[in-house]
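Entry 14. Two folds queued back to back today. First construct below, sequence then structure tokens.
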Amino acid sequence: RVAGYFRGDGLTIRHSLISDTGTEGIYVIGSSDVLLERNIIRRNNIERLTGYYPAAVKIFNQSWRVTVRDNLIIEHPDSNGVWYDVGNVDGVFVNNHVEGAQIGFFFEISKGVVAAGNVFVNNEQGIRILNSERARVYHNSFYNSPVMFDRNERSAQGDHFGWHPQTGPDVDEREGHVFVGNLLVGGTGFDAPLLHFDQTDSVCGQLTRPMAAQVDGNVYVRGASTQPLLSWSPVPGASCQTGFSTLPEFRDAVPGVESRGQALLTYSGTVFRSVELRHFELAQPLPGVTLRAVSAEARAVTGWDERERLPGAYPETAMPRD
């Protein structure tokens, strides 16, 4: 049912096709210094099991420095894409294409990850960061794939799997996230927030600091919608969570966010070179969108030379900028 269980430091899996498994494709357990690179991972959990939580790639139980780089991860409607689950430390998730999953990249109850240069297409969630600390998300492209950072009251006390939350950050340590230089696009008919920073009502009085250390330089493209552009917590109030329909509303309520962010909510032009052919370079310059600084750690893990890039996973447009 699983293509392979792997336990051991220094593992490399490269240039492989992992396809049509009953549950998981690759399952890495308690291992360090692992590299998964240039693989095609598709159609896993074909048994469509319920009461079980599969992923095309599962990184599980206190695995350190696992790098997932330049993989094609597609066709997982009944599964997550890549899931770092419980106690993992200092992950790297770069230059991957993830399409058609429940959650494209899931980082749960873990400490420290850099996600950069990835493309997420038609996932229920592109990235989800749950009950974790220090997730740094730079220059990714999201198409119909909302992003969620969230936290709740789950701890080692009274939990069905007490050792799970014990391996990650404690309830009051789930913060320090960075979300910078990303491109979030909702296509025709997309009617949901593009970005979430959510926490449950049960921790409203306990967790009063924001989850994010920095949210800036992102570009949001979406048409008319009945939903907020993004949601944020904590804020004053019984539920300590609210939504914002525009970036000026967001900036007024939360000082320091999105000073260089832009929202194109009435834009009718073509955004990507070709969604149908899966070319997610920008088709043309977006109005008012300029180069953004790229952090040193993003350059280090991706190998990018540019110190400035356009928001999203690609450095340039198909048509020249002025």
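Second construct, same run, same settings:
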Amino acid sequence: MSARGPYDAARFHDAYDKVMAKWPEGTGPVTVPTPFGDTHVHVSGPADGRPLVLLPGGGAATSASWYAQAAALSRTHRVHAVDLVGAPGRSTPAGERHPRTVADLTDWLDAVLDGLGIGETDLGGHSYGAWIALHHALHAPDRVRRLFLLDPTRCFAGFRAAYLLRALPMLLRPTPRRVRAFLDRETGATPLDADWLALQEAAVGFPERRPVTGPRPAPQALRALDLPVLVLVAANSGAHDPAEVAARARELLPRVRTAVLPDISHHALPQCAPAELGHRLADFLTAPGD
């Protein structure tokens, strides 16, 4: 367990709630017990809507970060935005039994879907959440109708070495000032929501568990994934080479659409809402058939 920095739980939860207040009226929380701990899920949209499960990126992203997409997605889907167990948010790990392997992560997400009463779902994730979503689709393709990956990391290309070097001071000795400086550097001219930025700062020192890491999915497994996939990459992403990510996805996935989102960076997603992102998600998720 990590407890780095001057963590203030009350400050963190207040910042979290301010970002959640940006979600549509009627959004409600659900707690899903799993063998790996209680998972906090925000649910929005019509009760009879097609289920859509959203996974956030790593760090302090949290389920709240989907607020800019929530209203549009909730018009057509029953949205379930998940706080990763063991990461900043309101999910609670079960003692020492928390996900340690990719198999643990897929078992955890299976248990979340079971607890929500979801058999088959549309599934999407950003960054680290996209990596989890892709692994889950490979593990249980019968449970995923459509899959979207938003600037996915370690799915089709590795991190840029320069990006890791820039992140190193924040990772080794995180402080609110270092978090803000890193995000300012990585997002460039994109204005960041003040409440979302306050949440990232308030998460410094959160008692999180070590995140599961692992290799990229095997090429042969990706070539066998027979379901519709949308890969959207950020043109200004410093995390990896956007062109390489898109090209590799087209090479490996048999039923993929790819697009580069202009004038947006990795860390400005998903809380920023470029019009093209909303249009592409809506077109993909509401397309008829499989």
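Quick look at the second one. The mean pLDDT is 93. The radius of gyration is 17 Å.
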